[in-house]
Hints:
The chain is of the alpha/beta class. It has 29 helices and 22 strands. It has five domains: 3-102 and 193-280, P-loop containing nucleotide triphosphate hydrolases (Rossmann fold, 3-Layer(aba) Sandwich); 113-184, Orthogonal Bundle (Arc Repressor Mutant, subunit A), CATH 1.10.10; 318-378 and 553-648, Rossmann fold; 382-546, PCRA, domain 4; 652-724, Thrombin, subunit H (Beta Barrel), CATH 2.40.10. Helix 4 (64-78) links the parallel strand 2 (57-61) and strand 3.
Amino acid sequence: MDVSAIINPLNDAQRLAVSAPQQAILVLAGAGSGKTRVLVHRIAWQMRINHIPPQNILAVTFTNKAAREMRGRIEDLLNISTRSMWIGTFHGLAHRLLRQHAKQARLPETFQVMDSDDQSRIVKRLVKTMNIDDSKWPPKQLQWYINAQKEEGVRARHISDHGDPYQRQMLAVYKAYEELCERSGLVDFAELLLRAHELLRDNRELLDFYRERFRQVHVDEFQDTNSIQYAWLRLLTDGNNNLFVVGDDDQSIYGWRGAKIENIFNFRQHYPDHQVVRLERNYRSTGHILKAANTLIAHNDSRMGKELWTEAGEGEPISLYTAFNEQDEAYFVVEKIRQWIKDGGLRSDIAILYRSNAQSRQFEERLMTTAVPYRVYGGLRFFDRLEIKNALAYLRLASNPHDDASFERIVNTPTRGIGAKTLDEMRGQARQQQRSLWQTAQGMLEQRLLSPRAAGALQGFLNLIVRLGQNCADMALHDLIQQVIESSGLLEFYKNEKQDRNEARVENLEELVNAARLFDFDSLSQEDGETVSELDIFLTHAALEAGESQAEPEQDCVQLMTLHSAKGLEFKLVFMVGMEDGLFPSLQSLDDIGRLQEERRLCYVGITRAMQQLFLTHAESRRLYGKDSYPRPSRFLREIPADTLQEIRMRASITRTPGMEPTRQTALSGGGRYRPGQSVGHEKFGEGVVLQTEGEGDQERVQINFRHAGIKWLMLAYAKLEMLG
DNA sequence: GGTAAACACCTTTTT
DNA sequence: GGTGTTTACC
């Protein structure tokens, strides 16, 4: 293969980035500008032109999906195997390093990765056993605190409480948490990154080895890196200038979970010889959509600066619909969807995007009643399901009995007579003696500290785990799992409980056996013939990649998801719904300029998902948390230029005050509609105040409290009402 | 030890 | 209003 195959499919800016000399490169890639393409072609360039062998290439992404896609595209482009290339998520690669150098990382060989659910259980338990007032120190907050510290690279021993009792308590929990994880051989997500950083930092030889090895480092979605991830990258590339990062400061929407948009700015100081390449040509959207996005995002300050353009032409204007309430909003959206389908469009080209998951409901209902197939993204993924986590906990305990998180989870699941009292006793002792629950349980049995009934139950449980542990080595994994769900009583338990959701649980457990049978160990095993068992590989996979949320995604259906999960995707027809202050931007962001700017970036992400048509909708009244609210239209709507927008009139006759043309401004501020509190006049009943409204179109009715005539319901279409005040 | 009533809460989410 | 969690009671 020659250079042309790598270079020809690229535009000038992309070419500049791909063929840039060996130095630190920052590619500012706008939405839809061919970001992944540049990354893939850069790697191809390095291999073909600079003759860098695959094992010297590192590529880091944030999601497993992105990593898979990149691997696939490199293989397609170069027609080679990428097995020896390190392509993965920050967490996945960190995990790989830690497995290979467990000893130097001061980790047990059999350490297991725990997810945030396990983590929160541990923190909750610590709060209990340490007798901490959970109203002052909510476990959630403690968990957040621990993760935030780790993401900044800070260990408990580095922190001083400055005599502040609140700090001191948080610190005490952090310390106790660290000790417990150490003792249980458990590593949380943030710990993976922190350990991997410390591993390289504290082992000069290892660091030199990997610096030598990763002659080219590539990073996707650089704007989403947090402090420890960036520190790790710097460690690997310091002095080598072999860092190629791609990102978009305007699409940084994960600040709330530690992503540091500053990294993109700091990059320029840290790598003085760097080169910046901007990808501004957009291949996705029409001119109107891009103009809206550009104008909106220009309201943010401290940007790197970037303006998307296209040769695709202006296209359809963006449509703005003011709905009466949330049902009307759903009704409108689904009508437009049906029209699209009737015109021969694909359902899978349509996305409904919302700020928060709770908003999906009314759209689901409407889609359901009109029999339009849809798929909601988000929610529980396969390995996150309760029954799956329970089954996995048995396996984890069998692999490592000191895993306290798993012990807690299943010691009495299904119930086998080991109650809260016995457990409290065990927790207290375990903490006192700095031993695992497993050891404590054994000790208590030996010393006959328990009632005969509890002792019998506990002994039975321990025996079960030991038996499973013995089978780990010489049983095929799927047989082992089959044995687990049977002999633990889990399968029996879910089969007997006659609830509809349990049927699915039984199915999921069977699916777990199947997943183990089909699991491809070869693709995930360590390159240097590590001693990691199949079981441990499978368990890590379950923690690091929780799997899809729904089984059969490849159907032609409408896509429903949050704006966050829409990042990186594109759809011909996009609805951004609930464009109201307090919803989007969210209530919590309204009074904080930094958060508001992140919301604006989120809006930018949403707009730029649309290829052909974009609908923005907001409702004048919305039931929120059981109460009626009358939100103002989102401030973002005012930041979109009017000449890209087209207002869609409401379906039925709306009584408007004579002479008041419904301009964009009045529609945006909700003028023209009757809402509670509005003073009205009626030729027969006189003056009154609107109490509530219901129905839509010519069915719309208004309840009015007339000063003299009392409370009456009036049909808007017939009653000649006049707005006052 | 299991169930039901009371209660608080209420973005966004990947690893 | 709906959900997940704690508490009270059988």
